[in-house]
């Protein structure tokens, strides 16, 4: 079914939807861990239905050795969601998203250590300038408040765990696309369920209609449907083109933060955001594409 759609349009659509996540999360009155659990449960349910309808079987016989990696990546994904949702609570959607998009920079720095890759001068420049951008969005010592700074720290923590998911996926060779995502969601559920029961508990009963509508949208649309679109498009597009189109996500998030939510950004924060997105994007572009 997914193959009938243009993969580039699917990726653009999925990145645009991802960029609107913050505005819906703001309207769900539950703890971050609880929201992460519900997101994983709803998405896993939808993807399970999709796999059943499309008659796709998970090759369990081929992935036995990679189960620990899938479990670890699912744990990292769950923690990543919790920290990102906390970031939305403490600071603006734009600042939370920009600090979260420091993840590719972390991956660039860690890859030479884990995979013995050479760190090029271009990558060093991108790391330094993106780090400068991160410093600038914190307000260079003059953040709008301690709440903003805490939110940025949560966003950066989410970036660390998102980078962990990316790095762990590099070691997973025998599980592709939607199967991998489904198993990671299951791992996230197994991890998040005891955490939620021991901390915030379940508070769905007291949630109002607006909260339920936003929760279903985040679980089914932002996670289930969009992840299906995202991974289906990745199979059909060159890696570099996919990486470039992924920057639609933070751009949409920033636009919504400023225009819809009315959240302000200082000039320094705007420049800092441009440095993070600009230099991480440049890092994704190969020399051939620059010629």
Describe this structure in words.
The protein is mainly α. The chain has one domain (2-283). 75% of the residues lie in helices and 0% in strands. It has 14 helices and no strands. It has helices at 7-19, 21-25, 32-53, 67-90, 93-100, 103-114, 121-137, 146-171, 177-198, 209-236, 239-245, 248-259, 267-284, 287-290. The mean pLDDT is 83.
Give me a quick take on this structure:
The protein has 14 helices and no strands. The chain has 291 residues and is mostly helical.
Principal-axes shape call: globular
- The secondary-structure element order is HHHHHHHHHHHHHH
Kindly state the percentage of residues in helix.
over 70%
Counting DSSP H or I runs of 4 or more residues, the number of helices is 14
Query: What is the total domain count?
Result: 1
Beta strands, count: 0
- Our Rg estimate from Cα atoms comes to 19 Å
Through-space gap between termini: 37 Å
Question: What is the subunit arrangement here?
Answer: single chain
| Strand proportion | under 5%
Average pLDDT level: 83
Outline the biggest β-sheet. Answer: none
Index terms:
291 residues, mainly alpha, globular
Topology diagram in text:
Layout: H1 7-19, H2 21-25, H3 32-53, H4 67-90, H5 93-100, H6 103-114, H7 121-137, H8 146-171, H9 177-198, H10 209-236, H11 239-245, H12 248-259, H13 267-284, H14 287-290
Helix pairs in contact: 1-10, 1-12, 3-4, 3-9, 3-10, 4-8, 4-9, 5-8, 5-12, 6-7, 6-8, 7-13
């Amino acid at each position: 079914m997914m193959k009938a759609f243009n993969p580039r349009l699917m990726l653009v659509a999925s990145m645009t939807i991802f960029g609107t996540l913050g505005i819906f999360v703001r309207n769900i009155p539950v703890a971050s861990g609880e929201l992460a659990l519900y997101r994983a449960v709803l998405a896993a349910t939808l993807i399970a239905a999709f796999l059943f309808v499309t008659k796709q079987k998970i090759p369990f016989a081929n992935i036995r050795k990679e189960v620990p990696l899938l479990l670890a990546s699912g744990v990292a994904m769950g923690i990543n969601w919790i920290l990102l949702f906390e970031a939305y609570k403490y600071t603006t959607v734009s600042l939370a998203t920009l600090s979260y998009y420091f993840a590719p920079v972390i991956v660039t720095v860690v890859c030479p250590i884990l995979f013995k890759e050479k760190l090029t001068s271009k990558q060093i420049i991108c790391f330094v300038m993106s780090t400068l951008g991160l410093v600038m969005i914190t307000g260079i010592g003059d953040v709008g408040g301690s709440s903003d700074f805490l939110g940025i720290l949560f966003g950066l923590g989410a970036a660390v765990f998102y980078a962990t998911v990316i790095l762990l996926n590099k070691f997973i060779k025998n599980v592709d696309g939607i199967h991998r995502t489904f198993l990671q969601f299951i791992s996230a559920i197994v991890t998040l369920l005891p955490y939620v029961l021991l901390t915030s508990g379940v508070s769905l009963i007291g949630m109002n209609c607006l909260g339920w509508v936003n929760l279903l949208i985040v679980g089914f649309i932002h996670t289930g449907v969009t992840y299906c679109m995202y991974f289906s498009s990745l199979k059909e597009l060159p890696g570099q083109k996919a990486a470039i189109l992924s920057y639609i996500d933070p751009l949409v998030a920033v636009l919504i933060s400023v225009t819809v939510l009315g959240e302000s950004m200082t000039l320094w924060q705007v420049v800092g955001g441009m440095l993070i997105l600009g230099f991480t994007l440049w890092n994704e572009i190969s020399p051939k594409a620059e010629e």
